[in-house]
Structures are given as structure tokens and as C-alpha cells.
Amino acid sequence: MNTEKQLEIEVKIKVQLVEPWRQKIRLLPAALTRARVFERNVVFDTLQGDLKKQGMLLRLRQQGAQSVLTMKMPAQENATYKIREETEVQVSDFACMEKIILAIGFQPNFIYEKYREVFTAWQTHIMIDETPVGNFIELEGSPESIDAVAARLGFSAADYITDSYHRLFIRSGGRGHMVFQK
After folding, report:
1. What is the mean pLDDT of residues 134-138?
2. What confidence category does residue 6 fall into, taking pLDDT thresholds of 50, 70 and 90?
3. Is residue 182 a part of any domain in this protein?
4. 165 in a domain, yes or no?
5. Beta bridge partners of 41
6. Distance between alpha carbon 47 and the CA centroid of its chain, in Å?
7. Which of 30, 41, 142, 169 is the most exposed, fewest CB within 10 Å of its CB?
């Protein structure tokens, strides 16, 4: 079982339509790392919200046939980028992992869905996220590589968003979970 602990540095950029940006990203040129896939993310916490109070996040993600358990530590103070330590492990069975998390006392706190497509260019992951609260390009890499890719796409640090999808959902007037209407 592989676990990966790393420093995650990322920003989001809100965009209206996905297709024009998909074409621009391909022309960077960027390599398609993962084709568009539906993701279901379940954020867990105690009933008292102990993890959230500490700035931590425990998430179980199902993306197609893959499932990933993620622990994110509190974000570092930075006005331009969201920077936090992240540890991830692939799990073979989403439902079993969810049962384990529930059995040790955590409860689903927030569920969010999105479609995600991943590209890579200049050591930067470029994600196109389609969510119930809009479309976003998420850039993950070093601050320098994020800035370089953003500039090639026509963006600057003034376009960067460091909010979580939960915060974006709440700011959009959302209540409950951020899921697509069926």
C-alpha cells in the first residue's frame, strides 16, 4: 500500500466555460494525466467538529474505480497560495473504508461532487473541475510553476482563489451538501 505525504501548494481560478480552457491547456502543451471522471468526496469530522476547529480535513474520495483517503493538516499562512501538508493513501474499497471511519467515531460532515480532468505541464498539475457551484481550474505545484502556468493561460495572482470547495459552496448560498441535482 503506497502512502504519499507531501506539501500541497494550490490555487483555484474560476472560469465560465470548460471547453475553451481545455483547448488552451492542451496547447500549452500539457499532457492528459487523467481523463474526466466523476468524484464523490466525503469529509468526516467528529460531531463537535474537532478536526475543522484545528484546521484539519479527513476526506474519503471515490473517483471512478479508485478510492483515496486523505488527511490535510492546517493551512500555512499565505495570502497567495493555499499551502498545507497532505497525506494520501489509496484504498481498495470505499464502502469498507467508510465503515471503518464511522466505527472510530467520525461522521460525514460535508459531501461534495465534481467532475475532474487532470493535465500536467512544467511539474504542475492542472485540474479542470466542474462543480455544482461553477467551473474552476485548479493549479497544484510550486509557487513558481503555478505562476508560470497561470501566466501562460492569461491569469495572474489576482485571479487566484484559495478557498475550499466547502467555503465556495457556503459563499454561494449553499446549504447541506454540494451535490449535483439528479
Report:
1. 98
2. confident
3. no
4. yes
5. 61, 112
6. 23
7. 142
Query: Could you list the residue range(s) of the whole structural domain that residue 71 is in?
Result: 7-171
pLDDT digits (tens, 9 = 90+) for 37-90: 999 999 999 999 999 999 999 999 999 889 999 999 999 988 899 999 999 999
Q: Which of 178, 164, 156, 170 is nearest to 10 (CA)?
A: 164
Residue 61's φ and ψ, nearest 5 degrees, are -115, 135
Is a pLDDT exceeding 90 seen at residue 108? Answer: yes
Rounded-to-integer distance, Cα 33 and Cα 44, Å: 28
Beta strands per DSSP E along the chain: 3-15, 31-45, 57-63, 66-72, 82-91, 107-121, 124-131, 134-140
Tracing cell 466542474 back to the chain, one arrives at 130
CATH of the domain at 18: 2.40.320.10
- pLDDT of res. 4: 54
Q: What's the grid cell of residue 66?
A: 479508485
